[in-house]
Amino acid sequence: MVGFTMFQHVNARLQQIMKTKEPFGGISVIVLGDFNQLRPVGDKYIFQFNNSYNALVDNPLWSLFELFELTEIMRQKDDKAFAIALSNLAKGMMTLEDINLLKSRIVSNENLEIMEDAIRVFRSNAEVDAYNTKVLASLNTEGAIANAYDFCIGDGLAKIREKVLNNVKNLKTTETYGLPLQIDLKVGAKYMMTVNLDIEDGLVNGACGQLIMIDYGKLQKTNETVPCRL
């Protein structure tokens, strides 16, 4: 979430790039957000004043925008009771019915394995990887390892290109836009996309699906058999 200070930095950087003092370098800007989100870490809300001086002169950036509030709930539109409970939770106005609804979803640690189809939320990527590895190992279905094949574009020296490619292999997924070096494939397993590939086709971040079949092909250089289509 972008805060007051970051918003100012974005404006200053665009002015520098576009070589003009116009707000945001004269570029049209559309900002989206949820006013019920927590405040940005170490910063003010984008519409708040950073200090007493800003309060005197107003926030010129935020005042340039026209607000359009979206009121129709889309993600939970098929579960009205749950949607209302979440809305009341964000406003700090939960009713007894809302509280009972959320409490009804509490599962003890002893019964976690019963919730096989539930999406789990963990505190760290390491915990996510450990759980996914455990689930995939329990599936007695066809499987394969899909390796990422990286390459360099340009006319750099061969040694430099090789060094870059070797360094990429050691990067964490947080440094590769969520793209892992390897993916453990198992027929019947559920997978979630973490990047946008084709918005019109619904292949977006957060989209879930089940692996039905693995189609294989051979690499031209090594003649290695690898999964090429899912």
TrEMBL record:
Coiled coil: none annotated. GO terms for biological process: DNA recombination; DNA repair; telomere maintenance. The keyword Transcription does not apply. Its EC number is 5.6.2.3. InterPro entries: DNA_helicase_pif1-like_DEAD, P-loop_NTPase, Pif1-like_2B_dom, PIF1_helicase. Residues 183-212 form the DNA helicase Pif1-like 2B domain. It catalyses: ATP + H2O = ADP + phosphate + H(+). One of its GO terms (molecular function) is 5'-3' DNA helicase activity. Its cofactor is Mg(2+). The keyword Transcription does not apply. Keywords: ATP-binding, DNA damage, DNA recombination, DNA repair, DNA-binding, Helicase, Hydrolase, Isomerase, Nucleotide-binding. Residues 4-81 form the DNA helicase Pif1-like DEAD-box helicase domain. Belongs to the helicase family. This is ATP-dependent DNA helicase. It comes from Rotaria sordida.
